[in-house]
Amino acid sequence: MSAPELIWKDGKFTQTSRRDAWWLSPTAVFVGLGAFIVYATWAALQTRNYTFGPYISPFFSPELFGNSPHALFGPKPGWYPSFLPFSPAVLILWIPGLFRVTCYYYRGAYYKAFWADPPACAVSEPRMRYRGERRFPLILQNFHRYFLRLSYIVWGFLAYDAVKGFIFPDGFGIGVGSLVLVINVVLLAGYIFGCHAFRHLIGGTFDQISAHPIRQKLYQWVSFLNAAHKKWAWSSLVWVAFADIYVRLCALGVWRDWRIL
Ligand code: FES
Q: Which of 24, 79, 190, 258 could covalently link to 232 via disulfide, CB atoms 3.0 to 4.6 Å apart?
Protein backbone atom coordinates (compact mmCIF):
# COMPACT_ATOMS: atom_id res chain seq x y z
CA MET A 1 0.00 0.00 0.00
CA SER A 2 1.38 3.40 -0.91
CA ALA A 3 2.54 5.50 2.01
CA PRO A 4 0.00 8.36 1.98
CA GLU A 5 -3.01 6.00 1.91
CA LEU A 6 -2.47 4.31 5.25
CA ILE A 7 -2.46 6.73 8.12
CA TRP A 8 -2.99 4.61 11.21
CA LYS A 9 -2.29 0.96 10.75
CA ASP A 10 -3.25 -0.32 14.18
CA GLY A 11 -4.73 2.69 15.90
CA LYS A 12 -8.30 3.12 17.11
CA PHE A 13 -10.34 6.21 16.48
CA THR A 14 -8.94 9.15 18.54
CA GLN A 15 -5.96 7.09 19.69
CA THR A 16 -3.03 9.38 20.29
CA SER A 17 -0.03 9.93 22.46
CA ARG A 18 -0.81 13.62 22.72
CA ARG A 19 -1.35 14.78 26.29
CA ASP A 20 -2.83 18.19 25.59
CA ALA A 21 -6.56 18.97 25.16
CA TRP A 22 -6.42 18.29 21.40
CA TRP A 23 -10.21 18.03 21.21
CA LEU A 24 -10.71 21.63 22.33
CA SER A 25 -9.95 23.31 19.02
CA PRO A 26 -12.11 21.05 16.79
CA THR A 27 -14.97 21.30 19.29
CA ALA A 28 -14.76 25.11 19.30
CA VAL A 29 -14.70 25.12 15.48
CA PHE A 30 -17.72 22.80 15.38
CA VAL A 31 -19.72 25.00 17.74
CA GLY A 32 -18.59 28.29 16.17
CA LEU A 33 -19.02 27.35 12.54
CA GLY A 34 -22.20 25.40 13.28
CA ALA A 35 -23.76 28.40 15.03
CA PHE A 36 -22.75 30.70 12.17
CA ILE A 37 -24.20 28.37 9.52
CA VAL A 38 -27.52 28.07 11.38
CA TYR A 39 -27.81 31.82 11.95
CA ALA A 40 -26.68 32.83 8.44
CA THR A 41 -29.15 30.38 6.86
CA TRP A 42 -32.00 31.75 8.96
CA ALA A 43 -31.03 35.37 8.29
CA ALA A 44 -30.58 34.81 4.55
CA LEU A 45 -34.14 33.54 4.23
CA GLN A 46 -35.65 36.64 5.84
CA THR A 47 -37.16 39.17 3.49
CA ARG A 48 -37.54 42.04 5.97
CA ASN A 49 -35.52 44.05 8.49
CA TYR A 50 -32.21 43.78 6.64
CA THR A 51 -31.87 47.54 6.16
CA PHE A 52 -32.09 50.47 8.51
CA GLY A 53 -31.67 54.07 7.35
CA PRO A 54 -28.49 54.18 5.26
CA TYR A 55 -27.39 50.74 6.47
CA ILE A 56 -27.81 47.40 4.76
CA SER A 57 -26.87 44.05 6.28
CA PRO A 58 -23.72 42.64 4.60
CA PHE A 59 -25.56 39.35 4.10
CA PHE A 60 -27.84 41.11 1.62
CA SER A 61 -25.35 43.18 -0.34
CA PRO A 62 -25.18 43.80 -3.20
CA GLU A 63 -28.97 43.68 -3.22
CA LEU A 64 -29.66 42.84 -6.84
CA PHE A 65 -33.43 42.51 -6.50
CA GLY A 66 -35.51 43.39 -3.48
CA ASN A 67 -37.89 45.86 -1.93
CA SER A 68 -35.45 48.13 -0.13
CA PRO A 69 -34.07 51.43 -1.50
CA HIS A 70 -30.70 49.65 -1.86
CA ALA A 71 -31.99 47.29 -4.59
CA LEU A 72 -30.03 47.78 -7.80
CA PHE A 73 -32.58 46.36 -10.27
CA GLY A 74 -35.91 46.74 -8.48
CA PRO A 75 -38.17 44.17 -6.83
CA LYS A 76 -38.14 40.40 -7.22
CA PRO A 77 -38.20 39.65 -10.97
CA GLY A 78 -41.05 37.73 -12.57
CA TRP A 79 -38.68 35.10 -13.98
CA TYR A 80 -37.57 33.97 -10.51
CA PRO A 81 -38.77 30.36 -10.03
CA SER A 82 -41.78 30.33 -7.71
CA PHE A 83 -40.78 27.03 -6.12
CA LEU A 84 -37.52 28.51 -4.80
CA PRO A 85 -37.45 30.59 -1.62
CA PHE A 86 -36.58 34.20 -2.42
CA SER A 87 -34.68 36.79 -0.50
CA PRO A 88 -32.04 39.22 -1.78
CA ALA A 89 -29.43 37.28 0.21
CA VAL A 90 -30.17 34.01 -1.60
CA LEU A 91 -28.95 35.59 -4.85
CA ILE A 92 -25.62 36.72 -3.47
CA LEU A 93 -24.64 34.90 -0.29
CA TRP A 94 -23.40 31.82 -2.15
CA ILE A 95 -20.32 33.80 -3.25
CA PRO A 96 -18.86 34.59 0.20
CA GLY A 97 -20.27 31.29 1.46
CA LEU A 98 -18.42 29.15 -1.09
CA PHE A 99 -15.37 31.37 -0.77
CA ARG A 100 -15.17 30.51 2.92
CA VAL A 101 -16.06 26.86 2.42
CA THR A 102 -13.14 26.46 0.00
CA CYS A 103 -10.68 28.60 2.04
CA TYR A 104 -7.48 26.71 2.85
CA TYR A 105 -7.72 27.58 6.54
CA TYR A 106 -11.38 26.63 6.95
CA ARG A 107 -10.83 23.36 5.08
CA GLY A 108 -8.23 22.30 7.60
CA ALA A 109 -10.52 23.39 10.44
CA TYR A 110 -13.81 21.84 9.37
CA TYR A 111 -12.28 18.62 8.05
CA LYS A 112 -11.19 18.06 11.64
CA ALA A 113 -14.27 19.45 13.38
CA PHE A 114 -17.06 18.08 11.19
CA TRP A 115 -15.80 14.74 9.91
CA ALA A 116 -12.71 13.99 11.96
CA ASP A 117 -10.32 13.74 9.05
CA PRO A 118 -8.31 13.58 11.29
CA PRO A 119 -9.87 14.84 14.56
CA ALA A 120 -6.60 16.69 15.23
CA CYS A 121 -2.97 16.46 14.19
CA ALA A 122 -1.44 13.12 15.24
CA VAL A 123 -4.82 11.74 16.41
CA SER A 124 -6.19 8.57 14.84
CA GLU A 125 -9.09 9.01 12.43
CA PRO A 126 -12.05 6.72 11.78
CA ARG A 127 -10.91 5.65 8.31
CA MET A 128 -7.88 3.87 6.95
CA ARG A 129 -7.58 5.32 3.48
CA TYR A 130 -6.61 8.83 2.54
CA ARG A 131 -8.04 10.12 -0.72
CA GLY A 132 -6.89 13.71 -0.43
CA GLU A 133 -8.52 16.39 -2.53
CA ARG A 134 -7.70 14.89 -5.90
CA ARG A 135 -11.10 13.32 -6.52
CA PHE A 136 -14.72 14.38 -6.56
CA PRO A 137 -16.16 16.04 -4.54
CA LEU A 138 -13.20 17.60 -2.74
CA ILE A 139 -11.39 18.37 -5.97
CA LEU A 140 -13.98 21.14 -6.34
CA GLN A 141 -12.12 22.97 -3.56
CA ASN A 142 -9.84 24.14 -6.37
CA PHE A 143 -12.54 26.62 -7.37
CA HIS A 144 -11.39 28.75 -4.45
CA ARG A 145 -9.35 30.96 -6.77
CA TYR A 146 -12.49 31.81 -8.78
CA PHE A 147 -14.61 32.52 -5.70
CA LEU A 148 -11.76 34.79 -4.65
CA ARG A 149 -12.27 36.96 -7.72
CA LEU A 150 -16.03 37.10 -7.20
CA SER A 151 -15.53 37.93 -3.52
CA TYR A 152 -13.52 41.00 -4.42
CA ILE A 153 -16.55 42.31 -6.33
CA VAL A 154 -18.80 41.66 -3.33
CA TRP A 155 -16.24 43.31 -1.05
CA GLY A 156 -16.26 46.38 -3.31
CA PHE A 157 -20.02 46.68 -2.82
CA LEU A 158 -19.64 46.29 0.94
CA ALA A 159 -17.05 49.08 0.94
CA TYR A 160 -19.53 51.23 -1.01
CA ASP A 161 -22.24 50.38 1.56
CA ALA A 162 -19.89 51.41 4.36
CA VAL A 163 -19.40 54.82 2.72
CA LYS A 164 -23.17 55.17 2.25
CA GLY A 165 -23.54 54.39 5.95
CA PHE A 166 -22.34 57.92 6.66
CA ILE A 167 -24.96 59.60 4.45
CA PHE A 168 -28.14 60.23 6.44
CA PRO A 169 -31.28 62.03 5.23
CA ASP A 170 -30.00 65.19 6.98
CA GLY A 171 -26.53 64.88 5.43
CA PHE A 172 -23.21 63.50 6.61
CA GLY A 173 -23.21 61.84 9.99
CA ILE A 174 -21.67 59.06 12.01
CA GLY A 175 -23.82 56.47 13.68
CA VAL A 176 -22.67 53.40 15.56
CA GLY A 177 -23.97 51.45 12.56
CA SER A 178 -21.62 53.43 10.28
CA LEU A 179 -18.69 52.20 12.33
CA VAL A 180 -20.05 48.65 12.45
CA LEU A 181 -20.11 48.55 8.64
CA VAL A 182 -16.62 50.07 8.34
CA ILE A 183 -15.14 47.54 10.77
CA ASN A 184 -16.83 44.81 8.78
CA VAL A 185 -15.13 45.97 5.57
CA VAL A 186 -11.74 46.26 7.27
CA LEU A 187 -11.91 42.77 8.78
CA LEU A 188 -13.08 41.29 5.49
CA ALA A 189 -10.22 43.05 3.71
CA GLY A 190 -7.75 41.51 6.13
CA TYR A 191 -9.26 38.13 5.38
CA ILE A 192 -9.60 38.18 1.59
CA PHE A 193 -6.44 40.18 0.84
CA GLY A 194 -4.46 37.72 2.93
CA CYS A 195 -5.85 34.75 1.02
CA HIS A 196 -3.30 32.08 0.06
CA ALA A 197 -4.57 32.07 -3.52
CA PHE A 198 -4.25 35.86 -3.70
CA ARG A 199 -0.69 35.59 -2.40
CA HIS A 200 0.07 33.25 -5.26
CA LEU A 201 -1.58 35.59 -7.75
CA ILE A 202 0.45 38.55 -6.52
CA GLY A 203 3.86 36.99 -6.43
CA GLY A 204 3.79 33.24 -6.61
CA THR A 205 4.23 33.08 -10.35
CA PHE A 206 7.64 34.78 -10.41
CA ASP A 207 10.92 32.90 -10.24
CA GLN A 208 12.61 35.99 -8.86
CA ILE A 209 10.16 38.36 -7.23
CA SER A 210 12.88 40.82 -6.23
CA ALA A 211 13.11 41.73 -9.92
CA HIS A 212 9.58 43.15 -9.62
CA PRO A 213 9.78 45.69 -6.78
CA ILE A 214 6.12 46.75 -6.75
CA ARG A 215 4.87 43.17 -6.81
CA GLN A 216 7.41 42.32 -4.14
CA LYS A 217 6.06 45.06 -1.89
CA LEU A 218 2.49 43.86 -2.45
CA TYR A 219 3.61 40.30 -1.84
CA GLN A 220 5.07 41.33 1.48
CA TRP A 221 1.80 43.01 2.47
CA VAL A 222 -0.24 39.98 1.47
CA SER A 223 2.18 37.73 3.32
CA PHE A 224 1.84 39.93 6.40
CA LEU A 225 -1.95 39.48 6.34
CA ASN A 226 -1.60 35.83 5.42
CA ALA A 227 0.44 35.12 8.54
CA ALA A 228 -2.67 35.83 10.64
CA HIS A 229 -5.16 34.35 8.17
CA LYS A 230 -6.92 32.29 10.83
CA LYS A 231 -7.48 35.36 13.02
CA TRP A 232 -8.80 37.38 10.09
CA ALA A 233 -11.04 34.46 9.11
CA TRP A 234 -12.67 34.24 12.53
CA SER A 235 -12.88 37.93 13.35
CA SER A 236 -14.46 38.71 9.97
CA LEU A 237 -16.88 35.79 10.32
CA VAL A 238 -18.06 36.88 13.77
CA TRP A 239 -18.29 40.54 12.76
CA VAL A 240 -20.24 39.97 9.57
CA ALA A 241 -22.85 38.10 11.63
CA PHE A 242 -22.82 40.87 14.22
CA ALA A 243 -23.28 43.51 11.50
CA ASP A 244 -26.39 41.65 10.30
CA ILE A 245 -27.67 41.40 13.87
CA TYR A 246 -26.98 45.10 14.46
CA VAL A 247 -28.93 46.24 11.39
CA ARG A 248 -31.73 43.76 12.08
CA LEU A 249 -32.20 44.78 15.71
CA CYS A 250 -32.16 48.46 14.75
CA ALA A 251 -34.82 47.77 12.10
CA LEU A 252 -36.91 45.87 14.64
CA GLY A 253 -36.65 48.72 17.11
CA VAL A 254 -34.85 46.58 19.67
CA TRP A 255 -31.68 48.65 19.46
CA ARG A 256 -31.38 52.38 18.88
CA ASP A 257 -28.70 53.48 16.44
CA TRP A 258 -26.77 56.05 18.43
CA ARG A 259 -25.66 59.06 16.37
CA ILE A 260 -22.14 60.11 17.29
CA LEU A 261 -22.17 63.05 14.87
S1 FES B 1 -7.12 30.63 1.62
FE2 FES B 1 -8.49 31.46 3.06
S3 FES B 1 -9.51 32.95 1.90
FE4 FES B 1 -8.19 32.04 0.41
A: 190
The number of the ligand 1 atom at minimal distance from the alpha carbon of 196 is: 1
Tell me which residue has its CA closest to atom 4 in ligand 1: 195
Q: Which residue segment(s) compose the domain that 204 sits in? A: 3-251
The dihedral region occupied by 195, where left means phi > 0, alpha psi between -120 and 50, and beta the remainder, is beta
- Number of structural domains (the chain) is 1
- Let me know if residue 177 belongs to a domain: yes
What's residue 14's pLDDT? 86
| Pocket-forming residues, ligand 1, beta carbon under 6 Å | 103-105, 144, 195-197, 229
- Per-residue pLDDT of 76-107, as tens digits, reads 999 999 999 999 999 999 999 999 999 999 99
pTM for the structure as a whole: 0.92
Tell me whether residue 256 is in a domain. no
CA distance 44 to 88: 8
> Quick check: is 22 in a domain?
yes
User: What confidence tens digit (pLDDT) does each residue in 18-52 have?
Assistant: 999 999 999 999 999 999 999 999 999 999 999 99
